[in-house]
Write a structure and sequence with these properties.
Blueprint: H1 8-11, H2 19-22, H3 41-49, H4 56-76, H5 86-97, H6 102-105, H7 129-149, H8 177-189, H9 195-211, H10 215-220, E1 226-230, E2 236-243, E3 249-254, H11 256-268, H12 296-317, H13 320-330, H14 335-347, H15 352-359, H16 375-385
Antiparallel strand pairs: 1-2, 2-3
Keywords: DNA integration, DNA recombination, DNA-binding
Domain Core-binding (CB): 43-147
Family: Belongs to the 'phage' integrase family.
Length: 393
């Protein structure tokens, strides 16, 4: 099965008449046996996309990223996707932050056009840092799949920064970026099938991911635990006060995005405005009555039920990659979301001292107790670098 990857307005460009488009001259194409029938770059991309057909939002998102890179490779570099090397992908990373020339790559602000409209463009504007990271995660998955299928000899994105082999024990019980995207996509699709479940899951997973909370902290918290204080620049910075292990209190920075998710949930449960001091509405309430607190086991069940649903959908795809991801989800627990938050913050470059304070860890290493992070800077670092990035399209 083949998918339309290049809208007609772009496929008529003279550059697509050269071998750069079909990839026949790609220097990274493998010469041995393959597990796919594709003999062109565009067909290899289509084969990779087949596994995401059952989820329209995931498919559209992944096709968009593959299409953008293919267009950039052919039209900007005049080289096949299968010839891209590490340095090319670093150049593409910078291009995403400022696609030039704007008239050629970026749509008219505030306007949307069909894929075959001459006014269609690949980008709506420059990508934020978090969107750029998500783009590279998806493309890394695509290149890795092409290597595993025997189409490419190597993945140019696999040469990025890696942790030292002498690093201390690493967390393995977490959702990698691709699996996290699958979970988010499933929740977003509930908007059209089960709106109450969508709102509860979106808020619950935002709490775990943006706050890095323990399941007991979600169960015991209330809206009155949110508060704000005025920063030196005059802005009100919001925080969430939680009591964790050992009855230790910590303050979690509430980014603008976190605040938006809070307001979305409160609007759904018909509680107006921002939380007030002493408000006893639970942080996460019962599905039947949001004012009734739910226990740890109920929250755990809500999360694992969602994981099971996503896993079942992945298994329907049938390929070994989807089955492997499904197996991971079937063994996951709610606590994995806290590990996911910490792992993604670390991989996004958030200072380890910030992560330590946000998650309430005792130390980073034997010397970390001597490190200190200014609270206002910690708030800024967390808000800038750590986002859940729900798509509302």
């Amino acid at each position: 099965m083949s998918f339309e990857l290049i809208p007609s307005a772009f496929s008529k460009n003279p550059a697509f008449q050269i071998s750069a488009f079909d990839g026949s001259t790609g220097v990274n194409r493998a010469s041995g046996s393959r597990q796919i029938a594709a003999n062109r770059d565009v067909d290899a991309i289509s084969a990779w996309l087949m596994q995401f057909q059952t989820s329209k939002s995931t498919f559209d998102s992944y096709r968009k990223e593959a299409e953008r890179l293919l267009l950039w490779s052919v039209l900007q570099l005049s080289k096949p996707l299968s010839s891209l090397v590490y340095e090319d992908l670093q150049a593409y990373r910078q291009f995403l932050l400022d696609p030039q020339p704007v008239d050629f790559w970026v749509s008219t602000p505030g306007r949307r056009f069909g894929r075959n409209d001459p006014r269609w463009r690949p980008f709506a504007g420059p990508l934020s840092a978090s969107s750029q990271r998500q783009t590279l995660v998806i493309l890394n998955s695509m290149f890795s799949w092409m290597v595993e299928s025997g189409y490419l000899v190597g993945n140019p994105l696999a040469l990025g920064k890696r942790r030292s082999s002498s690093s201390p024990k690493t967390v393995t019980r977490y959702l990698d970026p691709i699996l996290w995207l699958e979970v988010k996509a499933f929740i977003l699709e509930l908007r059209s099938t089960d709106l109450p479940r969508y709102h509860r899951l979106r808020w619950l997973f935002s709490l775990f991911y943006l706050g890095g909370l323990r399941i007991s902290e979600v169960s015991q918290g209330c809206m009155g635990d949110f508060y704000f204080r005025r920063a030196p620049d005059g802005n009100d910075l919001w925080w969430l006060r939680v009591v964790g292990k050992g009855n230790k209190e910590r303050q979690i920075p509430i980014s603008g995005e976190f605040l938006d998710e809070l307001l979305l949930y409160r609007s759904y449960v018909q509680v107006s405005g921002l939380p007030s001091v002493g408000e006893q509405v639970p942080l996460f309430g019962s599905a039947r009555n949001f004012r009734i607190r739910v226990g740890r086991s109920s929250i755990h069940g809500t999360v694992t039920d969602l994981f099971a649903d996503v896993a079942a959908k992945l298994r329907m795809q049938g390929d070994m990659h989807a089955v492997r991801r499904a197996s991971q989800l079937e063994s996951a627990s709610a606590h994995w979301l806290r590990h996911t938050a910490g792992s993604h913050m670390a991989n996004s470059g958030v200072d380890l001292r910030v992560i330590r304070d946000n998650l309430g860890h005792a130390s980073i290493s034997t010397t970390s107790i001597y490190l200190h992070t200014d609270d206002d800077q910690r708030h800024a670092d967390t808000s800038t670098a750590h986002r859940v990035a729900w798509s509302n399209s």
